[in-house]
Amino acid sequence: MKNNENFRSPWLVGRPLLLASIILISSLLSGCGSGSQPLRVFVASSFAGVADRIGAEHVRLHRGTDVELNVASSGTLMTQLKEGAEVDVVILASASYMGQLAESGLVRRPKIIALNSLGIAVSPSLARQVTSMDQIRDTDLQIAICVESAPCGVLALAYASSIGLDLASATREPNVKAVLAKVERDEVDVGFVYASDLRSSTVDLGRLVNSGAERHTTSYSLAVAANSTRAREARDFVSLFETETGSDVMVHFGFELP
Amino acid sequence: MTSRLPRILRYATFVAIAVVAAPLIALLWRVPWSDLPQLLSAEVVVDALILSALSSVCAAAAALVLGTLIALQLSNMRGAAASTLRALVTLPMVLPPVVGGAALLFAFGRNGLVGETINNATGLVLPYSLAGVVIANTFVATPFVVLTIESGLRSLDPRYELAAATLGAGPMRTKLGVVLPMIRSSIVAGTFLAWARALGEFGATITFAGNIPGRTQTLPLAVFVAMETNRGAALAMSLLLVVISLTVLVALRDRWWPSQ
After folding, report:
1. What is the pLDDT of residues A178-188, one digit of tens each?
2. How many folded domains does chain B comprise?
3. CATH of the domain at B173
4. Which residues of chain B are within 8 Å of residue A172 when distances are taken between CB atoms?
5. pTM (2 decimals)?
6. Domain assignment of residue B16, yes or no
7. Closest alpha carbon to B203 in B54, B65, B92, B47
8. Which entry of B66, B73, B96, B257 is 20 to 30 Å from B172 by CA?
């Protein structure tokens, strides 16, 4: 810093700049902070398509509202909720995860809305060759599963241990959509995803049948967050899942109804 | 220090420092100190630590070679061509790492531009292997070597090079025997920065090399997984990364921007 003398009175010299920056920063902060508040929905990756469609329906029925989805694996969502995330509606791919949240008082009265099971997808390039779990077990194929904190990872590990399949060299992806994307694009040979993904994927995947994976099931649970500031609107949104439209959407995305 | 900051700016500085320091303090506050030895000796942590050490050192070495070559080239260029090349090779610094990982996948993935040829010719699959981790790390770390070494080269008096040439040294000998030794502090700083960046790499690694415990699951990936399964282990590994990174930065002090 040379010419120190010239900058003796920062208040006089810097005032317009200072004011400008205060205005800029505060407007930025308020802009980044909150506008008109949307309904905040935390939703498991595998269910994002359904939540998006139902969200659009909700907006159609309630003009002027907006629905904002936070999509991640149920394990990640749990962590965010336990760390105090502000949210109105929670949809997890595991009723037992939701049970834990209810026990800690973070959500109220969870409800099971859909069922799903493990599904084994084979990459398009191997779809014709690989048709049974024995082939997968006996060959050195690259497998992708979900991380163990995600319900799809829990199912994959339980299934693998039940049939004696070694998953040590499987890559553990952050959520089921990441697994699906990798197997759809031939980046891995086999992906442990959900039956709903197998039904709704538009890619020419190999879909293993009667592998025993379908016996490893999970239920999707939905609840209003205990700290929701818009509980009434949240309940409206939740009730949509129990309408005929809700059922249609869930079936369309490959889920089974309870 | 030639002048004190005006008071209002000093207060603002406190706020600025607090914003940066608060998360680190919170991390230290959450660390289960008494369980630390046990948490750090868990198999998953040890595996990740070994992998991280191995891949970050390999990546730093690769970045050193690639970065030095690019920096030597850059320091001889002027004008728009230099700016364009510099922007191109330092892009991974500002690019979201996950985009870098995706780009690597398109290049070296099993169906990638180059990857498919490599795969067909040698059977080698780069993703899901230690080599894949090293490639991802090298990709994000190289710019640090380029920038520090180029800055060192540009601040070097060109007369040294002329003198060496006058005394009969060939161009290769001038570069390797005279120029590079004279900027060794930049080389060291660049390499350590590259190493630290490689050590912390997450996005490109998980996108390109996957997340296989014991094979491609480096410390940052292990932290990401453990955040949801074993909070104590996640904190212990985070602490480890903070300590290592801080040590590198303190050890380098001001050397990582040597032109000043």
Report:
1. 999 999 999 99
2. 1
3. 1.10.3720.10
4. 210-213, 217, 225
5. 0.82
6. no
7. B92
8. B257
